[in-house]
Amino acid sequence: MSKFKQDPRLRRLEMEHELLQDFCSQSELITFEPLNQRPGFPPESYKIHFRVKTITAIDSQQKPVYGELHTAEISLPNGYPMTSSPICYMRTPVWHPNIRSSGEYRGHICINAQVLGHWHTLDMLIEQIGKCFNIKTTMP
Predict the structure, then answer these.
(1) pTM
(2) Is the pLDDT of residue 75 over 90?
(3) Which CATH number fits domain 8-132: 3.10.110.10, 3.40.640.10, 3.30.40.10, 3.40.50.150?
């Protein structure tokens, strides 16, 4: 039973945290850490670590450059999930068409929030990001 009975957002964040714990406990390739968590409250942002070899860039000779640890940062803003979508950025280089590679929004992950809808949970979002790296997961 949630200790946040009176606050639907905190209840949702608490549920999201529990789903994320369960999801990552079933994967050897994906781990997470909460960011800036206030004592006694569920996290509102996370670093997600993906351990998989994938292309991070193309060198001057047009050959791929690889990396094996990739970190995303996901923030769940005040209106999440009803009026705001998660804000997702890669904090390490990744070469993928759904991840901005340059400019002001470098690292921004296109998550197509309108398609996801309000029912889409954080663990499902991380599974979608993992698919960018060809990580195959099975949702519980």
Answers:
(1) 0.86
(2) yes
(3) 3.10.110.10
